[in-house]
From TrEMBL, chain A:
Non-catalytic component of the proteasome. One of its GO terms (biological process) is proteolysis involved in protein catabolic process. PANTHER family: PROTEASOME SUBUNIT ALPHA/BETA (PTHR11599). InterPro entries: Ntn_hydrolases_N, Proteasome_alpha, Proteasome_beta4, Proteasome_bsu_CS, Proteasome_sua/b, Proteasome_suB-type. It is found in: Cytoplasm; Nucleus. PROSITE patterns: PROTEASOME_BETA_1, PROTEASOME_BETA_2. This is Proteasome subunit beta. Component of the 20S core complex of the 26S proteasome. The 26S proteasome is composed of a core protease (CP), known as the 20S proteasome, capped at one or both ends by the 19S regulatory particle (RP/PA700). The 20S proteasome core is composed of 28 subunits that are arranged in four stacked rings, resulting in a barrel-shaped structure. The two end rings are each formed by seven alpha subunits, and the two central rings are each formed by seven beta subunits. The catalytic chamber with the active sites is on the inside of the barrel. The lineage of its organism: Eukaryota, Viridiplantae, Streptophyta, Embryophyta, Tracheophyta. It comes from the Eukaryota. GO terms for cellular component: cytoplasm; nucleus; proteasome core complex, beta-subunit complex. Keywords: Cytoplasm, Nucleus, Proteasome. It comes from Trapa incisa. Belongs to the peptidase T1B family.
UniProtKB/TrEMBL annotation, chain B:
InterPro entries: Ntn_hydrolases_N, Pept_T1A_subB, Proteasome_bsu_CS, Proteasome_sua/b, Proteasome_suB-type. One of its GO terms (cellular component) is cytoplasm. It comes from Trapa incisa. The lineage of its organism: Eukaryota, Viridiplantae, Streptophyta, Embryophyta, Tracheophyta. GO terms for molecular function: threonine-type endopeptidase activity. Keywords: Cytoplasm, Hydrolase, Nucleus, Protease, Proteasome, Threonine protease. CDD domains: proteasome_beta_type_7. It catalyses: Cleavage of peptide bonds with very broad specificity. The active site is at residue 40. It is found in: Cytoplasm; Nucleus. Component of the 20S core complex of the 26S proteasome. The 26S proteasome is composed of a core protease (CP), known as the 20S proteasome, capped at one or both ends by the 19S regulatory particle (RP/PA700). The 20S proteasome core is composed of 28 subunits that are arranged in four stacked rings, resulting in a barrel-shaped structure. The two end rings are each formed by seven alpha subunits, and the two central rings are each formed by seven beta subunits. The catalytic chamber with the active sites is on the inside of the barrel. Component of the proteasome complex. Belongs to the peptidase T1B family. This is Proteasome subunit beta. Component of the proteasome, a multicatalytic proteinase complex which is characterized by its ability to cleave peptides with Arg, Phe, Tyr, Leu, and Glu adjacent to the leaving group at neutral or slightly basic pH. The proteasome has an ATP-dependent proteolytic activity.
Amino acid sequence: MDQKPFSQGLLSSEADSQRTLYPYVTGTSVVALKYKDGILMAADMGGSYGSTLRYKSVERMKSIGKHSLLGASGELSDFQEILSYLDELILYDNMWDDGNSLGPKEVHSYLTRVMYNRRNKFNPLWSSLVLGGVKNGEKYLGMVSMIGVHFEDNHVATGFGNHLARPILREEWHENLSFEDGVKLLEKCMRVLLYRDRSAVNKLQIAKITEEGVTVSQPYSLKTFWGFSAFSNPTVGAEGSW
Amino acid sequence: MSKGMVDVPPKGGFSFDLCRRNDMLTQKGAKAPSYRKTGTTIVGLIFQDGVILGADTRATEGPIVCDKNCEKIHYMAPNIYCCGAGTAADTEAVTDMVSSQLQLHRYHTGRESRVVTALTLLKRHLFNYQGYVQAALVLGGVDVTGPHLHTIYPHGSTDTLPFATMGSGSLAAMSVFESKYKEGLTKDEGIKLVTEAICAGIFNDLGSGSNVDVCLITKGHKEYLRNHMLPNPRTYVSEKSYAFPKKIEVLLTKITPLKEKVEIIESSDAMEE
């Protein structure tokens, strides 16, 4: 293979094989909100390989350290890579053994730096991350996109969740939601996503993080309703149309 | 022009001369003028007595709002209305055209128009143009066979649905419908739900905004509620009204009637040659 001229640099085809161009195995949206005692986060368990639903038991939410919960959508291998970076980060933090531990704000900041630096090298980690946690009574919920856009809010969503779940959350979220209300609201969003996102699966987990720690629920399914009379007989009075 | 071209006299029909120049310009980076799109949220739902249609009122030209209060719910027949999203000219023209065709058909048959007639006329036209007529429509009405609600896509495919949304704000509006719609809604519940869905589009989608229009159709009765809700009122009004600069002094006034300057020729053959 002859050398490309120097001016082509990072964008030559030789360098292409060294960087992420498109995602392969992807997870769909993650939705999260702040409630009275902490953060609630929901994600389904599907890993799509293009348009095939390849993996149906992927856990896309993991606890980080003592105070944080990370959920990811997008390329799953990049999520696993990020988990290993965070492992190392938490390990070094523990080795200090100074009674202090990294809170969600710090982990979010670290993730932002990692994502933004990778994007600057034209080799992004193709994931959208949701980072939630509680430390010393303070709740924190933030998001980092694959290009390093980061922000903090009372409710966040990735991917399709931005279009389908955020409008519902903007209307119906309020301060000091109880646990049951928070779960009901998340389930409402996940149900709409199930109906309208082609890569969604009806098998989801809801994770909760409070001052006490992280609990990830067992996988379960949502009930759906298909009994509209227009669905069972759409062409009544309009024979021949569809 | 390349040297090998022979000057052929134009034979009539479409002249493709400018196509090459347009291609060359786009290759050099000049952007063609964009169409005025409605960038919209339009919705429809079936309730217990009929159909309710809703739309926002913002029309965009790229990043600019060119019309703050346009009408997106078009009249098709006394019992049929159609919301349009996509290129404004296309939605207007196609609904106007089919509305006229429906009226002629009514004269021909002596009967009230049916929603499927409008549906078939629209989809045949749109399919014929292979998607180049960029009109995405939500068609609703009540005829002898009952209430009907259809969506029509620019390429000519249609759906028959109990609730439908189209346009750039369709996902925000659909999230409201999917979580709150049920069969057998009353008139007030239906209007409230349609308004909520359009507001979700207005506040969560950048291509939709301004006010909410609602149109309610039942058997033998229709209510066109233009600007049913105005959730974006102008709240800031400057206390300083328009003040013109300090008065200009009038030094001299002279009025010259034009009649003195113009000669009027009274002649019977003034119009000839």
